[in-house]
Amino acid sequence: AFEEQIAQRMRSEGYCQLTELPKTFEFPFFVAQLRGRFVSIYGSPMRVDFFVWHPEKYPDGLVIECKYQETNGSADEKFPYTVANLRKTGVSAILLLMGSGPKPCAIEWCLKQQDDRLRVFKDFESFMKSASRGLF
Whole-prediction pTM value? Predict the structure, then answer.
């Protein structure tokens, strides 16, 4: 449901939703659940939740990865793997953490990983507020 809200927001900002990457990038677009463009730190093909392209804002592309965890569990233990994979893409990336399940220390660790290529949002509301201020 969250991913569909993100897709709706991008469409409302003028992005075309495509099912695969075009041969040439001429207009703002996004592809949900893109597979095969990037390789994981293990060398295997990687799937990203969203690949976004915009000629001025994201000329090299933007990857958005969403992680949802409602109850305590091990999903937050995979955050370092996710961050390493996002860095390996070589493009700007957003990590969106959602749900009340991740340990606070895991969220804080992710926030400390931010730099000029990686932005981390600790909840859906802050992500959507940033979208309202021109993220897309």
Answer: 0.93
